[in-house]
Structure formats: structure tokens, C-alpha cells
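Re: the request from the purification team.
They wanted to know what the chain is likely to look like in 3D before they choose a buffer screen. I agreed to run a prediction and write the result into the notebook, where they can find it.
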Amino acid sequence: MTLYSMLHTMVSPITKGMYRMRVIGAEHIPAAGKMILCSNHRSVMDPILLGVSVKKRSIRYMAKEELFVKHGKAVNRFLRTLGAFPVKRGSGDTKAIEQAIEILEQGGLLGIFPQGGIVAHGIPFQPKSGIAMIAYHAKAPVLPVGIDTNGDIKAWKPVTIRFGKPIAYEEFGFTDGSRKEMKYAAHIIAERVNQLLEAKE
């Protein structure tokens, strides 16, 4: 048993109870194969909430570099052991992008919060175009996810995780990977996530 799966087993019942979690659309999560899991970012708990929602697969998160640098070597090693890897935000970090593409090409599940940081309140969800670039180069589909709650995410307050239908790579209509195409793909992703955030079921 890997550290990820061991922690998943230990943390899942506690997290589901503490945050009164409701998961909708889990049937859209593929059992295998490359996929970009794209979610809005409400709080520092989001990676755990998503990890608990996804059974039988580990999520490789692209996480801000500060988490690996500012909290000591022990935290750095722990995050990397769990499969997370750092990205320098706002710098076009080619090393991180290459690692993300490699994870997908190996059939992995890549987790990205493409808003560039925590956005605690409000719709619309507005992703940066970097997620489209990764999808383009890896020829990967995108699984939209909406993390929804009334106000701040706090213990004992209900949280709903909605998974939408995967967006097939072909839906983006990529041809040359131009900036215009990246913006269009990001727009498609934004629409799908916003639909989940606006859902009432």
C-alpha cells in the first residue's frame, strides 16, 4: 500500500464526516487513463476534499512552489511523496509543464486549480490558459469539477463536490496551439465548471 492510499483510507471517513461531504457525478471519473482534473479553488482543504472524492486513483497535484519552499524540508518531502510537484506561478514554468505532460502521457490523473490561487467566493470561475496548454501538448481530456458551499469552507458545514462529464480533447478543436486556441479552450473549461457551480441539485 502506498503512502497516498494509506492516508486516503485514514483521512476519508474523517473528512467526509467533518465537512458533511456530498459527491455528485463520481461516475464520470475514469478508472484509468490520462485525465486533467480541473477544479475551482475555494480553500486550502480543496486537494484533500478532491482526493477523498476520487476513489481507487491517486491525484498528482500541481501545487504552488511556496508550499515546497516555505514550510521546511519535511513538508517538501511529504508533498513529493504524495505525488505533488511545484510550479512557479506567473512565470511560465516550463519544467512544471513538462512534468505535468509526462504524468498525463503515463496515464496519470493530474489535478490543477487553474485560477492561480484561492478564490474563496463568487462565480464565474476564470481559469488561466496554462491548463489548455497542458491539455494541448498531452492530448488529454479535462474533467471539470465544482467545489460548492454556502460561504466559507468550514468544519461541520456541508460541502458539495460535483464532477461533470469529461471534455474530450477533440472538443477543444486544437490545430496549431495558438494563443487564440488556448483562450478558446480555457473558455470551454470555464463554462463547464461554472455550470457545475450554478447547479442546484
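For the purification team: The chain is about 40% helix and 15% strand.
Please add any questions underneath this entry.
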